[in-house]
Amino acid sequence: MGFGPGGWGPLMIRAAGMTLSLAVCGYLTGLLAGVLGAWAKLQKSRVLYRIADVYTTILRGVPDLLVIFIFYCGSAATISPIFELFGHKGFFALPGFLAGFLAIGVVSGAYQTEVLRGAVQAVGNGEIEAARAYGMTGFLMFRRVLCPLALRYALPGLANVSQLVLKEAALVSVTGVVELVRQAQLGAGATRDPFSFYLAASCLYLAITSVTGLLFQFAEARAMQGVSRS
């Protein structure tokens, strides 16, 4: 485990970068899905609410590994017949990275839906009524009042989801992506020194989670400026 000739250090760092890329892409995809899901659950339409409720119930109840398999193998079941129509036979599927972060995204989106919905519902009616009394339009009220206030309540939950997404990135190795855990397995098998590689992988995970935790703490401190805490 070093950075000299024949060392596995650069490969481990590169795998950590792959893990971080999967986590970031999956988290942002989930944030988009969470915003849409929370919006649907907060509407008066029972149809939209039921669709969002089915989404969150299924994705939170199905193991994440199965969702990754569904995205990867399901894409193959869809894409391969299309290629066969043009005379190309074989196994065709979404790239492992794309299928992986999309699967992570839809799973994390189910959790972020509930976090964002709860945060919006935690905003007091007095602030909304005051914004309407000032004559704010719907979008202006959302941008200046609802979004900043809801963000204060949502940030702790969103931070927890980010840690879950980082751990879920380790499952994407089933699609052939060499992320941190997979690289540690390869190094341990080649050198027969599993302790060093798994310890190094654990340290890299802790480094990533520590940095993301500090970023969310900074964001929460900024969001809570001007608010007294008892």
UniProtKB/TrEMBL annotation:
Species: Mesorhizobium cantuariense
PANTHER family: ARGININE ABC TRANSPORTER PERMEASE PROTEIN ARTQ (PTHR30133:SF2), CATIONIC AMINO ACID TRANSPORTER, MEMBRANE COMPONENT (PTHR30133)
PROSITE patterns, A to Z: ABC_TM1 (PS50928)
Highest taxon listed in the record's lineage: Bacteria
Keywords recorded for this protein, A-Z: Cell inner membrane, Cell membrane, Membrane, Transmembrane, Transmembrane helix, Transport
Family: Belongs to the binding-protein-dependent transport system permease family. HisMQ subfamily.
Transmembrane portions of the chain: 20-40, 61-79, 91-112, 195-219
Bilayer topology term: Multi-pass membrane protein
Cell compartments where the protein resides: Cell inner membrane; Cell membrane
Protein's UniProt name: ABC transporter permease
CDD domains: TM_PBP2
UniProt keyword Transport present: yes
Cited SUPFAM superfamilies: MetI-like
The ABC transmembrane type-1 domain, residue ranges: 16-216
